[in-house]
Design brief:
The protein is α/β, with parallel strands linked by helices. 36% of the residues lie in helices and 13% in strands. It has one domain: TIM Barrel, CATH 3.20.20. An eight-stranded parallel β-sheet has the order 1-5-6-7-8-9-10-11. A three-stranded antiparallel β-sheet has the order 2-3-4. It is globular, with a radius of gyration of 20 Å. Pfam families: Amidohydro_2.
């Protein structure tokens, strides 16, 4: 069970970028074309950026009690709980939720900062990336550097620029680097190519882990175009399964043995199946694979998963490894566990030995992310 003195660390939460973020940080020449919040005729608000108009899905936020609590439709900032976008208010939400510390990913910027890949003006795109990362350090995490932690994003369209950004933020206080779970769907080279080698080398030098958040490929798997959205939520971890197989067999983690990879918001119940299949593939077809180390060894040394509620994973700790699994609350997403995260975590850990529960809820995250 979960020891009473555990201070839970959630390794997957999100911040809704506040309206002032880019308007206060971009060079003046970019403010009229950079991200900014506008009013729409239907009464909603939206981000506009170059020629894009992007509304914030209500299900990605938490709504104040006096407003419609439905997760459907789109949210205005005054309808959101301030903890969605204001760091001091986020700390109050964490206190209410029983969460000591958290690791935050973006929303509008997309989970690997890949909103800006489609930007026609790459100087603007680079400035947007830098402004977001500076906001993380100077405003978000600065509100409480012991409890609020963040993942830096990169200009993935430019490897040299990505390396430079890694080196720029490495000592700023960010705790991880975001990368796409499948860069080919973004029109970028795969992890099987040597395209990313300078980036892996730069990240290795920092000691920071890489986070592969589900949806960071801009594509979640669907059974068919007309399948309702909840159908996809049933197998949402499939994206992490695919990314895991790529990283097991690409050889990257053998060429860069200090790299560590976290699969964010993908669950962990799929891990025993993937490792069993990967072992069979490696044994029977290993001669055509770049990787020369058995998959279970690569996973154990380099890979980390996270769960909200996952009884299958907790019943398979002997396979997954109690040092390779962490916990998440996913605030402020509607699918997350707020405001009952501590209570639900305790319920999940009721049959887990105390020291394993401590590792999953707190100390694994502290070790991986340096919290």
């Amino acid at each position: 069970m979960l020891p009473a003195d555990v201070r839970p660390v959630s390794v997957d939460d999100h911040l809704i970028e506040p309206p002032h973020l880019w308007q206060s940080r971009l060079p003046a020449k970019f403010r009229d074309v950079g991200p900014r919040v506008i009013e729409l005729e239907d009464g909603t608000q939206a981000w506009t950026f170059e020629n894009q108009v992007v509304r914030t899905a209500r299900g990605n936020t938490r709504t104040l009690p006096e407003f419609d609590q439905s997760p459907h439709g789109f949210a205005r900032f005054e309808e959101m709980r301030p903890g969605c976008y204001e760091p001091k208010a986020r700390l109050a939400e964490m206190d209410l939720d029983g969460v000591w510390a958290q690791l935050d990913f973006p929303d509008f910027s997309r989970f690997a900062g890949h909103r800006f890949i489609g930007c026609t003006d790459k100087e603007l795109a680079n400035a947007c990336i830098r402004a977001y990362n500076d906001f993380l350090v100077d405003e978000w995490c600065a509100a409480d550097p012991q409890r609020l932690h963040a993942v830096a994003v990169l200009p993935l369209w430019d490897v040299a620029g990505a390396v430079a950004e890694v080196e720029r933020v490495a000592t700023s206080g960010v705790k991880a680097i975001a990368f796409s779970e499948n860069p080919t769907t973004l029109g970028l080279p795969s992890v099987y190519t040597d395209h990313w080698e300078p980036l892996w080398a730069a990240i290795t030098a920092t000691g920071l882990p890489i986070c592969l958040h589900i949806g960071s490929s801009s594509k979640l798997l669907r059974s068919s175009p007309d399948a309702p959205d909840p159908v996809g939520l049933t197998f949402v971890g499939a994206n992490s399964m695919i990314a895991c197989a790529d990283w097991l067999f690409s050889g990257v983690l053998e060429r860069f043995p200090r790299l560590r990879v976290a699969f964010s918001e993908g669950g962990a119940g799929w891990v025993p199946y993937v490792l069993e299949r990967a072992d069979e593939v490696f044994e029977n077809l290993g001669e055509v694979l770049a990787a020369k180390t058995p998959p279970r060894e690569i996973f154990s040394r380099h890979m980390f998963t996270c769960i909200m509620r996952d009884d299958v994973a907790l019943g398979s700790l002997d396979i997954i490894g109690d040092g390779n699994i962490m916990w998440e609350a996913d605030y402020p997403h509607e699918s997350g566990t707020f405001p009952n995260s501590r209570a639900l975590l305790e319920k999940s850990m009721a049959k887990v030995p105390d020291e394993q529960a401590r590792k999953i809820a707190e100390t694994n995250a502290r070790a991986l992310f340096g919290i």
